[in-house]
Erythromycin biosynthesis protein CIII-like C-terminal domain-containing protein (Cudoniella acicularis), 512 residues
Amino acid sequence: MVTGNGIIALKRESDVKVENLMDPIPGTLAICGVTFILISFISQFYFHATMEKQQSILFITNSELGQASVILAVAHEFLIRPEYDVHIASFTALKNSISELNEDASRASSNSVSKATFHVIDGKSMKEATGRATEFLEMHPHGINGALYAYDNIIKDICPDIVAVDPLFSQGVDACNNLGQKCVILSPNTLKELVLQDQPGATPLTKFPAMASGFPYPLPWYYIPANIYLIFRFLKARRINPRLVTLAKYRETHGLASKIPCMFEGFGDAPILLPSTTEIDYDFVVPKHATSCGPIIRPFEPIAQTHPEMDRWLKQRPTVLVNLGSHILFDAEFAAQFASGLRVLLDSRADIQILWKLKTQGQTKKQLYGDGGALEVISEAIKDGQVRIEDWLPAQPIAILESGNVICMVHHGGANSYHEAISAGIPQIVLPVWIDTYDFALRVEHLGIGAWGNRTAAPRVEASELGKALVRVVNTDESAGMAANARVLAEPFRKREGRVVAFKRIVEALRS
């Protein structure tokens, strides 16, 4: 674990423990430590080339479900096949999800199944290391020394058959690169993040909107100079950032490549697996080393079986699901604007209901529901059960989407939310808040399956703008077309499940 002295350990729940090694460099320079710890950890697996033995697969991921969900989905496919020995390495926060994964796999198969072994990486998770109340894609620090002794002594002796690694867990990518370990990159993200650099000619500069820009797609010619400028500024910021420059030098002194792997690069020739396809993304050329799997969704049980009360409520009326994930915490003003936007929709269509996952910044019930409170404008609808507010959805979002009663999903532009709605064939309203989320707002409009709901007010919302977007998607002449487009896009993925495609590609890489 990380302490005030920078002590760090990686341990398998049953036996592996490395600790009490001091971190000589605090803060972000300590990021190298997890790389060496993972090198040590990977070395705990014994390679068996014979078919009589289980083949071992190690998944390495951040613990935030935004990154881990695709890992868990594909791990399920290995667990229901007893010829594989499944291991998952992450931070403590993922532990309960691994238990649920094992239980789900056991229920899903009438045959004997494997159980995933969870290996804890002690230290700060991505969310903890940002120091924010929300989750955000930012490099996170760890301790340094971990298991340098193992790097010298046992690294060459044993290894897993293959590693599937979350590309945002750069230390895992580092470990595989340093070991020459056979691996695949398993990402929840899109073609834009992972293969933009592989596009022909100048198209990375002139065809696709720069990250976080919200520029239109296809990119109009008069946006091209500004687009090139933003891309240049992004590359320059990475090149001259003092923190990254110092870290690059520090990495070199510890035997790592100076360039830090990230969601855009650093994977070498490793196969890349992702849920994005050209049908549900921008018009990319997909390189040979990338596999467009389609939405990579965990299997789920029907909500009627797991949460009958919620199922009965959903069946009462057509439902709009509002799920801004665990990323967004509402303050009173944000909640009030949002509630007023929902009021516009309810006034337009009295026959619908709204399920709203609402996480606040600690407001009291009186501040939310009392006279003059943030939600006063929809208080009667809440009292009547037409608006149902939950701080945590009782069932998996995909199970709610697939209930047959949801007519629209409102989300913040997370990759998993987007792909779940695609899989379920549900129109979307996207309220982007940072980085890649703006691209998802552009995608739903480009594909004709929804609307960008806060184009003016982003990263927050404004009541009338949100209300207009809700009415547009749910109760205008455009609504039926959006719903039809969403159903058409979903159809191929019902016959070709993304997690199965990813499983087959990993097995192919395992045997190559």
